[in-house]
Batch of 2 targets.
Target 1
Amino acid sequence: MIELQNISKTFRKNKDEVHAVKKVDLSIEPHSIVALIGPSGCGKSTLLNMIAGLYPPSGGKVFYDGEQVTTVNTHAGYMTQKDNLLPWRNVIDNVSLPLELAGVSKEERYERTRKMLAEVSLDGFEEKFSSELSGGMRKRACLARMLLYEPQALLLDEPFAALDAQLRLAMHDLLLKLWTEKRQTILLVTHDLVEAVTLADRIVVFSKRPATVTYDEVVDIPRPRDVREVRFTKKFRDIYNSVWEHLKDQYDEERI
Amino acid sequence: MSQDDIGAAAIDEIETAAGDSEAGLGSVSRPVMLVLQILVGFAFMAVWYASSGTLVDSFMISDPVAVARKTYGWFASGEIYEHMWATIYATIIGFVIGSLAGIVGGVMLGLSPFLSRLLNPYIWAFNALPKVALAPLFILWFGLGIESKIALAAVLVVFIVFVNTFAGVREVDHDLVDSLKLMKASRWQLLTKVVLPSATSWIFVGLKTAVPYAVIGTIIGELIAANKGLGYLVQKAGSEFDTAGVFAALVVIAIIAVIINELVGLLQSRLENWKVVSR
């Protein structure tokens, strides 16, 4: 259970104040997939950073499983927009890093890593350095790395934005498959409403900065979902339209 | 290979290099460049040889043949080895001690904003000291033996390595550190898996800059008070008005510095092979 109580975040630079997040209350049910959607730069990433415990909120409290998050939240795996691969390590050593930190033997972690790399179609790239990979490949390496150490909660910040449409569907499929096995709590920040409806149990719409919750909708499309077909169902269309009604206001204002 | 052979080969190479001058002089291949470098050396010695006794008193600048003869004599008789060994030993030990101290200090202060702010004025005060002036003190403390030379070399090295390591540790990508923290990395793991590897290129800049200073430290120690070492040879030859001997000792010193520098470069390319790949 992730709980945000009256969260605000203000960044100060000299005399300028930027209100990134304002008075957000949000509870995330354990084992659910929740999509956070809203205009870019609205403070969704800031929210994830606070849940990960990378920096404290200016006001309000973050709770994880009933405990206040005051330092780095090691229950959560965090996939940021920027790929945080170590440039001096090749793919297999990057992806197996969490197992290495946990003291897993080299043989075992390589074996598990190779399996995971095959899942994200990065097999054959084990020896490459991150500077030799495309943006999408780096994202997949990050995803593989995060899935490999099996955190209870996944914080995904636009994880599939850099991928082409086919690969994105494959990753959606993979994510749902792994979620069915492990039932992590997943918080997914995205711009893509189709992605949000396809994957999530619930969609939370944020306003433009400072981010506040403007709309909250439950996606009650039954699981398992076929990530390729689900978008053509009537239910999907209804949910899409009702969320879009609220989302488009945020964009219209922004355009002016 | 005789001197004439090298010269003839070099002229050939210069002509072929000039032939494809559109490619630019910067793209000259490695063996050609080596030959050119040797050629520059010979040209310098030719000028030296010609001006000795004509333009300048040969007592002042000796001449390359005399220097070569002197150097050869030292190696042939074997008397040079004791001095070379003394200098190399003090340089390397001093370099290693100074580098380790610089790296440890740089990492500690780089990771602790409090310590670095606290010690900042003292560090810069220490850096402003002419450390060569510490030589008499070290001789007083550590005696006339090799220890005082090691200390002087280490003191000259430590600050250079420290400053570079400090900067490297400060430059570490904090997002990388955060992402490892989320993976439950311990402080020690953060240091060894992120901070040190990412500071490696900075540390090596420091190490490479420090090599000549280690040599200088040792030589100055030997100039002031010693009974062996290349610095001692320089000092002894000078006091005997033996300019060829002074030059011969300097040549050996320069060769040692080049060799140590190459060794550090070799170590660097071993540790940073990922950078070569990414080009």
Note: The CA atoms of residues 109 and 116 of chain B lie 5 Å apart.
Target 2
Amino acid sequence: MTLTLTNVTKTVAGETHLADVSTELHPGGFYILLGPTLAGKTSLMRLMAGLDRPTEGQIEMDGRDVTRVPVRKRNVAMVYQQFINYPSFTVYDNIASPLRRSGMRAEQVDTKVREAAETLKMSHLLDRLPGELSGGQQQRTALARAMVKDSEVLLLDEPLVNLDYKLREELRVELREIFARRSAIVVYATTEPEEALIMGGNTLVLHQGRVLQQGPTTDVFRHPASMQVGRSFSDPPMNYAAGDVRQDGNGNREAVLAGGIRLPLLGHLARLAPGRYHFGARASHLSVKRNREDDLSFKAAVTLSEISGSETFVHVDFGEDHDWVCQEEGVHRFELGQQIDVFVNPRDVYAFDTDGWLVASPVRDKTRQAAQ
Amino acid sequence: MDRWPDHKAWFLVLPVAVLVAFSAIIPLMTVVNYSLQDVLGGTYFFVGAEWFEQLLHSDALHGALQRQFIFSFTVLAIEMPLGVAIALALPRRGWQVSLCLVLVALPLLIPWNVVGTIWQIFGRSDIGLGGWTLNELGIAYNYTSNSVDAWLTIVVMEVWHWTPLVVLLAYAGLQAIPDAYYQAAKIDGASAWAVFRYIQLPKMRGVLTIALLLRFMDSFMIYTEPFVVTGGGPGNSTTFLSQYLTRLAVGQFDLGPAAAFSIIYFLIILVFCYVFYRALEGIGKGAP
């Protein structure tokens, strides 16, 4: 069953929650809604579920208009950030509840419940009440309840966000495997670019109620259509600096960035015509040491250095209010205000036009990948 | 090596010990003391458990105790469902919320003897709006002479006065339920009854138990309002435990029996406190 949204807009009390969203979701597909809080992820899911009606636009399932069909007549299931289960039901009864409501025979319910519990590794917890379970187990119960239903659309609204790091990683991997076997449309909302990359599938980047870009997750990541997508789909957000591409008398071109940084136009940047651009580089492509021969280096002052796990995020300032973040493997110590050399390879730099649209993105070169 | 235990730490406990002694232990022991003695013209006689035996066989006490239980259970049976129903009917968001809550909570802000006075006047068949209207409608109503009417008045007054507390607690419980539960129920296609029975009620279990405890304790110790409205009458029909105790101690100045009664009353409350405390402890484990 294909779910089609055409020019969907949702306004609540004069406030636009979704603006002109069009997309098509296919059965068996895995779709990620990526965007910060208030981007409209939950609003979009509520429309897909039928909990809300769009102010404008149309929602179709297999060509049939379901815009005004209420939720109980659609075959959807949803899992939330909070762990939502019936408090007075055991895990077994919780998982069985949607099946029983549909009037399924008891033996069949039993088989299905045990199957779902098996998949989510909670067969030993069937007699417990939700209150007696850990957060991870409660969310597994909710997931099992949503999956057992064999719904056509399965909506997961940041289901792992309230779990601790370890559990999240574990469940993420399991979920990816479970979804791969299903024929339903699975929609998964997240605020974390990293999670989107791990889960794969297709990504819709949402920002302020608009779908900025959609497509296979890795494509969207590699070729952000606009500067905003670059910001949304990078953590920390992509670093930007404005610059001019100039051509000298010999026809040699180079870009001069803010702070007087001269950027050689290597690789994909070579075809940039003279003019003004915004150049962008991901934090992971910035380094405090030279990694390649043709790396560009510039001087900057350290404004903040934070260590996260085994990585160091160095915030640097190279004048004119340009604060960039540099992500470096390993634990490093820097003094505040210390002048350091920052390196970036021009081949990793994105170029956007003055309206913020992508002009040139790094080509993914197999041989170069291998050389790294 | 010599080791002398350091007893200096006891001095730190002393202020609390003195405070507790003066505020709780000494008054309580005075009562115990009275309950075991008879006073005659300034002379004290030790009478042992005589007062207790006399009380436990006293019809007046049995009557008061029975009325007390009937009263408490009647009031609870009305206030709990009514409170939950009102809480469910209140708006969940918007400016109306504070308005409704203030209106609902109004009876709680009125001093108890004023509540009694309000109903005492309201129910009078000569000048009270309620009592007069009933009589004009052809319903013979007089709480000073008819014990059923007296009971009705006291129960209605108690419900009017204290249901708001149940409403407030139940409402707080309802507000604490995340919206996602209702969405999930909608997606599951659950009926309004199913939402109440399987989501709202279990989620309110904690606050409702607390409401039940508070209301039971308070109604079990009710004194002021019946004292003002009916003074325990007509006859003994609305004489509850506190009224009886006061009559014994202040009215008849039977200090020995009154002290013995105080202890029995206190023990009853203590037992219920313990039972409820255990019940409360269990709540944390059952529901999330």
Note: The longest helix of chain B spans residues 255-286.
